[in-house]
Amino acid sequence: MPGDNRYVTPLDRDDWTFAATSETRFSWQYEDGRDQLLTLYQKGKDKQWDSVQRIDWDLQVDPDDVLGTPEKDLALYGSRQWERLGPPQRAELRQHMASWQFSQFLHGEQGAMICSARIVETVPDMDSKFYAATQVMDEARHAEVFSRFLNDKIGLAYPINPNLQALLNDALTDSRWDMPYLGMQVLIEGLALATFGLLRDRTTKPLPKQILTYIMQDEARHVAFGRLALRDYYAQLSSKELAEREDFVIEGCYLMRDRFQMREVWENLGFDVGECLEYMNRGTRMRAFRSLLFTRIVPCVRDIGLWGDRVKQAYTDMDVLDLAHNDLVRLMDSDEKLADDLDAERRELAARVAEVDATITQGVSG
Question: What is the homologous superfamily of the domain 35-334 according to CATH?
Answer without folding.
Answer: Ribonucleotide Reductase, subunit A (1.10.620.20)
